[in-house]
Amino acid sequence: MAKKKSNVMKSGAATLAVLLCEDIEELGWLGDVVEVKTSYARKFLIPQGLAKVASDSNVRAIAEERDRRGEQRKSERIKLEEAAAAVEGAEAVVAAKANEQGHLFGSVTAREIAANLREQGFAIPDETAIFAADDGVRLAGGGHGDRHWGGIKEVGVHEVTLKFAEDLSCKVSVVVVAEVAQA
Questions:
Q1: Mind listing the pLDDT tens digit for each residue in 161-181?
Q2: N or C: which end of the chain has fewer CB within 10 A?
Q3: Taking the C-alpha atoms of 60, 64, 67 and 68 in order, what is their torsion angle to the nearest 10 degrees?
Q4: Burial of 24 (0-12, 13-18, 19+ CB in 10 A)
Q5: Which of 56, 82, 108 is the endpoint of a domain?
């Protein structure tokens, strides 16, 4: 993982080597020894229990947990790769209310797309981000930071990208059909 820009070393800045006790996004994984600003370590990382001062005894104590977490990350990655391979090229058919011109009253959201794919038996994690390929708008996402809620607003076939991880994605087709009015 890359270091956070605001906490990386700058020439002349006081730094401290810390041992991470948790996975910290953009800083490192559990068991990594990283250099951070002394103030960041002393005011945030250490009091929150996210890091300890790097010492030989602390490194040895956390080595077993680091190995266990590494294996856990590998197995989770394998599951995500299998899920992405299985859903690649799938088709989700979603019915929505629309006018005569094909404009939807509302929109088809990522939640509806994911629910449809789950009903078909695909394993779609909740934190999967879904992007519309037509305009690059993020329909929804899980734990990937900012959320831009949009949706598909037209009847027709749309290609969307499911982003399982930073470097793992696949494409699926979403067929939006006009809902038939019941009399």
A1: 888 888 888 899 999 999 875
A2: C
A3: -160
A4: buried
A5: 82
Q: In this structure, what token pair is assigned to residue 58?
A: 């602390």
Q: Position of tokens 């994690």?
A: 125
Cα end-to-end span (Å), the chain: 57
Provide the domain limits for residue 14. Answer: 5-82
The torsion defined by the Cα of 8, 10, 13 and 16, in degrees rounded to 10, comes to 40
Within this chain, do residues 45 and 72 fall inside the same structural domain, yes or no? yes
Rounded to two decimals, what is the model's pTM? 0.63
Which residue in this structure is represented by tokens 């559990």?
30
Q: What is the per-residue pLDDT across 46-99, written as a single tens digit (0 to 9) for each? A: 999 999 998 888 888 888 888 888 899 899 999 999 999 999 999 999 999 999
Residues 32 and 64 in one domain: yes
